[in-house]
Amino acid sequence: MPSSIGYFVLAILIAVGLFFGLWWILVSGGDEAPWLPAGLAASVVLLVALSAREVVMRRAWTRYLLENGISQNRPSRSRPSSRSQKKGFSASLHSAALRAIQKQSSVADHPGSTPEMHLDVAQLCHDYLASTDEAIRSGSHGSEKGIALRAGQERVRALHRHHLLSWARGQSQLLTHEAQQRARTFDKIETATRALDCLDSALRIYPDEADLSESRVAIEEFIASVKVAHWVELAERSAFKGHYRRAIDRYRDALFYLNQDIVKQDVRLAGTEKIGREIEKLKTRLRPGNGAQQRNPDDSGPNHDQ
Description:
Layout: H1 4-28, H2 35-71, H3 80-108, H4 115-138, H5 143-181, H6 185-203, H7 210-240, H8 244-258, H9 265-286
Helix pairs in contact: 1-2, 2-3, 2-4, 3-4, 3-5, 4-5, 5-6, 6-7, 7-8, 8-9
């Protein structure tokens, strides 16, 4: 365990150094009350340092309890009294780990919590279940303590499901919103794909979650619409420059993504009809005697439409 006194001394020294540094700068600048902003800045630094240590140490202590719970199952040649002491110590570790998980679960469920907090609790639940499974298989606990472990496992399984699904929903929503704000097509697709990965990781464990499956379908539709819009934009650029054949090819690329099964039927029909009309207009311009002349797309350099 890291030294608490050393950490506190270091945090105080940093805060004091910041106070005198800002105080000297403000005095040199002619500030009438330099101690006020300097003291406020030093106080904020000290509070942030103490809060950060509390969060980190709470998580580290929970993992420490889980890891020691596993290590207590190693075979030993000690006397029966020593073995019974280890059994009791291991059981107390699992009980302490369970209480720590429940405490962090309550914190993660508070309004304003981040998806990463739910993921941390889900990972702790996973570690707890692995530890208690090993303890139960080893037979190192009596019948009463085994029943208590199984009861704890039931509570932790429910917490694991709740927090893993909360993380998947929250993180996928954040990534989808971020993808909608991106400017480049590649960034939109890449960010939306990360949202799909979050949902898939939860669906592999809980495949019967209908709302996650619906969210996945919605994100896939978004990705398809981004690809369609990208190729339609390229087609319009080519048509504006007089590259009608290239524009027709670009519209056909858009139709490829539009006609995927993931796209809703009404959207697919409306989009197909609109793109079809644009293709017919371009074909009309390519017919001899219509007064339009196809330009050579190579004249403007390779991939100019991109």
